[in-house]
Amino acid sequence: MTDFEAEFDSLDEIETLVRSACDYVRASDDLRPRVLEAARVVRGEQRARWRVCQLAVCALMLGLFIAAARRHAEMPATDLQSGSATGRLLSQAPPAAATSDSVWEMVDSFTDIRRRQAEVLRLEL
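The structure corresponding to this sequence follows.
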């Protein structure tokens, strides 16, 4: 007898054992409750991780809000009293005549206002 035939004989024996064991293999009475409890535990862990992520995002947002509030509180009093930086710059701009001969003066004044706004914004950042 070759090894190949011997292997088939042992497989027949194993198959016979498996067939005879079909009456002995049963799920235990507490299998379903154990599976449900394990699923609850896993779901609870997932919820806890989600809550931690939410708290981290909230803490980050709160930190950004506090930093912005501090920056606003440290703003010089003159900036707060005169209103917005744009309003201050517009009030400092020289008046331009509305005649057709002085159109370029108006363009120059707007260019100057834009330059001043850019300077103010660079300081505030």
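The chain has five helices and no strands.
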